[in-house]
Amino acid sequence: MPGQKLRFPGRNYLFAPGPTHIPTEVQNAMNVPMEDHRAPDFPELVKPILKDLKKIFLTTTGTPFIFPATGTAGWEVALANTLSPGDKILTSRFGQFSHLWYDLAIRIGLEVELVDTPWGEGVPVEKFKKILAADKDKKIKAVVACHNETATGVTSDIAGLRKAMNQVKHPALLMVDGVSSIASIPFRFDKWKIDIAVSGSQKGFMLPAGLAILCFSKKALAMRKTAKCKRCFLDIQDHINTNKDGFFPYTPPVNLLRGLRASIDLLLDEGMENVFKRHNRLANGVRAAVKAWGLSLAAKSPKWHSDTVSAIWLEPGSANNKNGKKAVEVINIAYHRYNISLGAGLSQVAGKVFRIGHLGDNNEARMMAALGTVEMAMMDAGIKFRPGSGTGAAAKYWCANPNKALKKIK
User: Fold this and answer.
1) Does residue 73 form part of some domain?
2) Residue 99 belongs to a domain with what CATH number?
3) DSSP letter for each residue of 133-172
4) The model's pTM
5) Distance of CA 60 to the CA centre of its chain
6) CA distances from 366 to 118, 127, 240, 371, 372 (A)
7) How far from the centroid of its chain's Cα atoms is residue 261's Cα?
8) Among residues 253, 269, 285, which one ends one of the domains?
9) How far apart are CA 6 and CA 93, in angstroms?
10) In 10 A of CB 22, how many CB atoms?
């Protein structure tokens, strides 16, 4: 039919940093008949999910919440349930998503002290420390940080940020966007004394988009009693009133909850520390490939490297791109010719980077598919590099650093 998209043999491979591949076990768990979310046995699904989410956040004291929304709504849940119009927050902007949380705060009437930071770096801990130390009247009510900035493939030091806050004895809440880090790379709610963590279902949780998954500390929960920001659908009090009995204040997406149950089971069966190690190994292999191609990452130094996504520079006029090809051409070729989805550059890095997501349900074989396809797309685009150099470097790294959590082959 006219306009009908040609079907590719095989499946589309998702190597954007979200949504990610859905494991078969999770897909099957969601493929169930519609259920009554007021059924007497519904709490048997909900209560264990809320309890086991604590194991994903690595907390014994936090309170998880699940909203039928996305990470963006999670940002608003965090701010609106703890703060009042005119309250001041401290944040930084070093990518598209750190910018969007800042923009949301402005829109709901908060005062924002913004520290603009070069893209390719992360949260400027020392600058934050000086600002907080100078805040003698404690006007800053919350420090807002993006743990993993997917636009540039940068991970910030949240443990270091908490240490800095403690050193200057500042009582501000610590709110962290962990949308592309939680359930993938080390995220320690209790150890880092995080007050609010925000995540989404479509990344490390290996689900479709549609759930905002949060965790509140006791301190953050107490703030809801004085918060004056207007809220209704995103009010955690309604969840507190109903979650204790295993229900929700409105109709939840039950199929996503079934999928979340299966996702949590997969993560806990692997073990969170093993999940973190696996993501680090896969990321190191991808970084070895990028180096072998003669390309560079948007992250400006290894201390910023993200284990969930690599943003790779491919600017027109660079040494290996003198013919003026743009990153977007590699992305388009990969998608239309090889049926693989790569992440595009956003805002300041639009057209300058392509991104390889290596989070969620991935292993070495799947990542080799991504790297091999990127090599073909770059060849088709006329990018100068040695074919096979990246896949070879990744294979060499992974073979030299096997996954110790798997059974040894005799």
Assistant:
1) yes
2) 3.40.640.10
3) HH-TT--EEEEEEESEETTTTEE--HHHHHHHHHHTT---
4) 0.95
5) 22
6) 32, 40, 41, 9, 10
7) 19
8) 269
9) 40
10) 22
